[in-house]
Amino acid sequence: MGKNIFITEDDESIRALIKVALEGYDHNVYDFETAEEALEMAEKVKPDLAIFDIMLPGMQGTEAVKKLRQNDKFKKLPIIILTAKDSEIDKIIGLDSGADDYVTKPFSVMELMARVRSQLRRTEEQTVNYKELGILKINTDTREVFVNNEPAVLTFKEYELLIYLIDNTHRVVTRDELLNKIWGYEYTGETRTIDIHIRTLRQKIGAAGEYIKTVRGMGYRISKD
Questions:
Q1: Pick from 62, 14, 70: which is nearest to 35 by CA?
Q2: Residues 6+ apart with CB under 8 A from 172
Q3: Residues in the chain, pLDDT under 50
Q4: How many angstroms separate the CA atoms of 81 and 27, rounded?
Q5: Do 116 and 149 meet the contact criterion of CB atoms below 8 Å apart?
Q6: What is the pLDDT of residues 27-59, one digit of tens each?
Q7: pLDDT tens digit string along 207-219?
Q8: Which has fewest Cβ within 10 Å: 35, 88, 163, 223?
Q9: What contacts 165, CB < 8 A, 6 or more positions away?
Q10: DSSP secondary structure letters along the chain
């Protein structure tokens, strides 16, 4: 699936060359002559990767990179800088501004495409799956639970209960449904088991325990409201 890629380059011929190459990989390409235009569009269409020339009319590329990094939405955005300056200090300045990689002019389009693929691949590998509800945050890859960024240690069943409730946010989940889904259809124990686990779960997740509501005569639902 194509990514949203921003190109900011004041040389129209270079900009067009990069755009054609990226579109050949089915990416959605947004091209700009100035950094100001790119930053404005970034608030409307979130880029998956950005390419900035350093020498631009108005705001310099390195300054634009710094501004993006100051915004939480773009702290992990892969950014490649293009520079006609190939001295070591210029490369360091570009990377220190917050860029992830650099390509010096004149450059090979194939090399630039390889750098783009590398950055996109790195980002995808670092993607962490989270479920969030108010002050509650769950890393579903590692099965870690955090309340106000502090870890909460849950048993296997407590974790499964929490995930099932969150996956059914705002819906009342009956005790029988929880027994069937978490303990399995062959479970022959009492529904009291659910109440005990819910009580300990509430205790372990502290302030977020208030999110788990008891619906008398029916079961439970989870909501931060």
A1: 62
A2: 215, 218, 219, 220, 221
A3: none
A4: 18
A5: no
A6: 999 999 999 999 999 999 999 999 999 999 999
A7: 999 999 999 989 9
A8: 88
A9: 173, 212, 220, 221, 222
A10: ---EEEEE-S-HHHHHHHHHHHHTTT-EEEEESSHHHHHHHHTTS--SEEEEESS-SSS-HHHHHHHHHTSGGGTT--EEEEES--SHHHHHHHHHTT-SEEEESS--HHHHHHHHHHHHHHHHHH---EEEETTEEEETTTTEEEETTEEE---HHHHHHHHHHHHTTTS-EEHHHHIIIII-TT--S-THHHHHHHHHHHHHTGGGGGGEEEETTTEEEE---
Q: What integer pLDDT is reported at residue 1 of this predicted model? A: 65
Question: Are 18 and 50 within 8 A, CB to CB?
Answer: no
In this prediction the pTM is 0.58
Tokens representing residue 209 in the block: 């325990």
**Amino acid letter at 66?**
K
